[in-house]
Each structure stands twice: as structure tokens, then as C-alpha cells.
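Researcher: Re-running this chain for the archive, since the previous output was lost when a drive failed. Same request as before.
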Amino acid sequence: MISDFNEIKYKLAGLPIESLRFESNPVCKSHNYRVLTIAYLKNLKTLDNSWITLDERKDAEWIAVKIQKFIEILKQNLVYINFLSHIERVLIINKEF
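Model: Regenerated C-alpha cells:
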């Protein structure tokens, strides 16, 4: 059973899988299940007994780029948050002296 997209992304991505059936897996209930699965599994040709169309592939590639950009923004924000947290600790220490 596949319960979330992390399992697809980290366990299945990179494998030469061309056909999958997830019809009874919990991940199927997720919003954008089909397009995200296509985005993570580049070699996939059929999903749930349905051929992947060129439009679906284009949508998946577009979403994959957007997801990657979002992840980069989150990482950058985490760096800023850590930096601000460090400054806050320094200010608190200096205030005590």
C-alpha cells in the first residue's frame, strides 16, 4: 500500500516503472494524485489502466518545476529563520550583560 506521495517520490522515482495501478491505495484520495504521480515517475506510460496523455505529461512537468521552486524557497526561508534565531539569541545574551 502506498499512503502518500513521499513513498512514490523516494521509493519508486528513478525506477524504470512504465505501468502502475494504485486504484485501491490511500494515495489515490489525494488531490492531484494522477498529475503528481506522473511528475515523480518520469518513465510511467500508464497509470490505473489509463494511458498518460501528452497534456498530462506537460502538466506534470510544469508542476514538478513549481514544486522544486517552492522547495527552494522553503529552504531559503529556513536559512533566514535560523539566522534570525541566532541573532535573537545573541541579542538576548548581550542584554543579560
